[in-house]
Amino acid sequence: MVSTAEIPAKERFAVWREVSSTRWLPLDARCEAHLEGTFRARASFSELGPVQVVLLTATPLSIHRTPKLIRRSDPETFLVTCTVRGRVWGEQDGRHSELRIGDLSLRDSSRPYLTRLAPNELAAQTVCLQFPRSFLPFPQRDMRELLALRIPGDQGVGALSSRFLLHLARHLHEFSPADAARLSTLTLDVLTAALAGELDAHRSVPPHTRQRALMAEIRAFILRNLGDASLTPDVIAMAHHISLRYLHKLFQAEGQSVAGWIRECRLQRCRRDLADPLLAARTVSAIAARWGFTSPAHFSQAFRSVYGLSPRQFRRQCATVRAE
Prior knowledge:
Blueprint: E1 2-3, H1 12-23, E2 28-30, E3 41-48, E4 51-58, E5 61-65, H2 67-72, E6 77-85, E7 88-92, E8 95-99, E9 104-108, E10 113-117, E11 124-132, H3 140-143, H4 156-170, H5 180-199, H6 207-224, H7 233-239, H8 244-252, H9 258-274, H10 284-290, H11 296-307, H12 311-323
Antiparallel strand pairs: 1-3, 2-5, 3-4, 4-11, 5-10, 6-9, 6-11, 7-8, 7-10
């Protein structure tokens, strides 16, 4: 985490300009003189295998990747930015775009570019992924057609990538090192599918990549709808325009069942809520219902089979540990 919160106001932008360029890749950050006194920024850096993830929140500033900086150091990477909050404006290779929440944009570290965060707004937040160019299965000449273009986050495969990256940004601090390799592969698969859609080059995407991207979309859909007791494999299959048989096949390929994964996720959410002291006044039945369990008896039995304790015993155990 890099933040200007504890830095005196008059020094914030100068410190940020230096730290951000050395911590990431060489960049020239600029801020209008009359805004430097109120400048604020915070960045969280994470590594998902070969994918570096940066969650950046900042008041208005511009970021320049100049020819001089490229000559100094070039990691030969692609950067994909997703707007989490506010607006972002970008330019590369003579193209420019304005991104709103959920929209995506591609950059190439080997070519000059300009990005403006929060133009005419108080602050903006973005999640940016940086990874080697060789990790995408497309010719470089084709990828140049996408540089700085807006990839809509509200339609088509772009919507899948948008939802995935927004979820990644909001839960970045929750992922353990053991999650890194899996999330790295999944992230690149999702981005590959989205970029293939923009290039209209689905045949360039390996079948296993398309399959993993579809699984990412299905899992995200399930997580968004865990509290809906009517969430069934039939509903999930229809929502993704695939057959029920194919849905089961996708999960079986990963050694799981659809219903089993839904139950596992629901139990994890219930366990988290039962351990939360802020929810101590909420009944066990209410917590179970919140996550889609309609029968308290069935919930208690399922919880005990996985965690070895009844929900009430687990809650008392957590309270005892906190009191010690």
